[in-house]
Amino acid sequence: MGKPGVDRRLSRALFATLGTLGLIVVATAAEAHSTESALPSYDHVVIVVFENKQYGEIIGSPNAPYINQLAQGGASLTGMKALTHPSQPNYFNLFSGATQGITDDGCYAAQTMSAPNLGQELIAAGKTFASYNEGLPNEGSTTCSNGRYAQKHNPWFAFKNVPLNTGRTFAQFPKDDFGKLPTLSFVVPDMCNDMHDCAVGSGDTWIKNNLDSYARWAKANNSLLMLTWDEDNYLGSNRIATVFFGAHVKQGSVSGAYNHYSLLRTFEDIYGTAHAGNAATATPVTGVFDSGTCR
C-alpha cells in the first residue's frame, strides 16, 4: 500500500492530466464544428469550368458583362490561381486533387483510374453526382472528340469508380425543374463556349443564355453556382477568375491564396466527404459564405 501523501499527489496529477486531455478534446471538437459551421449545406451545386483566360480578361472586363454581374451579386476570389499548364492536368487537380500522371492534353484511356475523386466521394456519402458536357454525343460516351467537344476537359470518364452514366450531354441539363439536378454537377461548355477557341463574349453570352435561370433559382433555393477557369492564357501568373453566386454567399471580393485543390476541399467539406489527393492539406474557401445562414 502506498503512502497517503504520495497517493494524494498521484491522484491530483492524474486528475490534472485528464482535465487537460478533456480540454484538448473539447477544443478539437469545437474547432471541427467551427470549420463545418462556416460552410452551408447546399441542396444543389453547379460548377462551370471555362478556359484559358487571365483574371483581368474576365473580372472588370466589358467583354464579360454577365459574369461581372454574377461577381457583383456574389463573391469573387482575387487570389485564385491554376496549378499548372496545359488544360487537362488542371481538370484532374480540380476533380481528384492530383494530375494522376496526366501531363498533356492527350486522349486518356477511359475508366482505368481508381484514385479518390469528388464524384466517387459524393456517391459514397449518399449524395448524387453528374457532369453535363456540351457536345458529348450521348450519355456515357468516352469518345476523345466530337466536333467542338473535347474529352480533355472531362476527367470523370477516366475513373472506374465513377459510373459512366453520370457523364451526360448538356441537352440533359434541366431547363426549369432544377430540383431534379444532382447534389453536385459540373457543366463543361464546348471548345467555343468555354472561351478556348472563341472570344470571352461568346462564353459570357452562353452562360447567360443557358444558366441565368438556374443562377436566379439557386439564390432562392439553397443552391449555388460557381464559375472557374482551368488556367490563364500562358501570358500571366496563372491567376484566374472564380465566382460564387447563390444562396448564403456574401457579396464582395475575397482575398487569399487559393487554387483548384482549395475548391475541391471546399466542396468535400460542404458535404462531409473524405478528401482526395492534395485537397487533404488544402485550405477551404470559407470566406465567400455567410456564416449566419449555415447549417
Secondary structure elements and pairings:
Layout: H1 4-37, E1 44-50, H2 55-58, H3 65-73, E2 75-77, H4 87-96, H5 118-124, E3 129-133, E4 145-146, E5 149-150, E6 167-169, E7 184-188, H6 200-220, E8 223-229, E9 242-246, E10 252-254, H7 260-271
Task: Identify the overall geometry.
Answer: globular
**CATH level 1 name of the largest domain:** Alpha Beta
Cα-to-Cα separation, first versus last residue: 55 Å
**Overall pLDDT:** 90
Helix % is 25-40%
Strand order of the largest sheet: 6-3-7-1-8-9-2-10
SS class: alpha/beta
Q: How many runs of DSSP E, i.e. beta strands?
A: 10
CATH superfamily of the largest domain: Alkaline Phosphatase, subunit A
Main β-sheet, in a few words?
Answer: 8 strands, mixed
Taking all Cα atoms into account, the compactness measure Rg is: 22 Å
Q: What CATH architecture of the largest domain do you see?
A: 3-Layer(aba) Sandwich
Topology as a string of helices (H) and strands (E) = HEHHEHHEEEEEHEEEH
What ranges have pLDDT less than 50 throughout 5 or more consecutive residues? 13-36
The figure for the number of domains is 2
What's the quick description here?
33% of the residues lie in helices and 14% in strands. With 295 residues, the protein is of the alpha/beta class.
Describe the structure.
The chain is α/β, with parallel strands linked by helices. The chain folds into two domains: 1-37; 41-293, Alkaline Phosphatase, subunit A. It contains seven helices and ten strands. It has helices spanning 4-37, 55-58, 65-73, 87-96, 118-124, 200-220, 260-271; strands at 44-50, 75-77, 129-133, 145-146, 149-150, 167-169, 184-188, 223-229, 242-246, 252-254. The strands form two sheets. It has an eight-stranded mixed beta sheet with strand order 6-3-7-1-8-9-2-10. Helix 4 runs parallel beside helix 7. The longest helix has 34 residues, at 4-37. The relative contact order is 0.24.
